[in-house]
Amino acid sequence: MEDCIFCKIVNGEIPSEKVYEDDKVLAFKDINPEAPVHVVIIPKKHISSINEVTAEDELLLGHIFTVAKEIAAKLGVSENGYRVVSNCGKDAGQTVPHIHFHMLAGRVLGWPPC
Ligand code: AMP
Ligand code: ZN
What we know:
Elements (H helix, E strand, L loop, with lengths): L4 H6 L7 E4 L3 E5 L7 E7 L14 H17 L7 E4 L15 E5 L9
Antiparallel strand pairs: 1-2, 2-3, 3-5, 4-5
The protein binds adenosine monophosphate and zinc ion.
């Protein structure tokens, strides 16, 4: 997807502060952090949102949660806790149409998010 900013981060056209990378997944620090730890975890494959997920993406999306666990450990937030959330569509506030998972941690997080 040539106009997708997260695809541009994947292919190096836009810089990012990477915290994890493998052949299928990339995670980088959010440019506008909402918590002391705010990491964006994305599949390298362009999927616009949860609405576009198909059965063939199941292994990939499961892998993202294994990666999330590793990132939490690496950043030292496993014990105190963290939130992993994906916004889908306008009412949820999705601004980048490439599926992504926010990892938020480092402070007490309110629930529900408003
Ligand atoms: P959402 O609003 O759920 O679609 O989340 C998109 C997130 O991407 C926001 O938290 C933005 O701050 C973040 N973001 C947008 N552009 C960049 C970028 N170039 N580098 C890092 N994070 C970004
Ligand atoms: Zn993309």
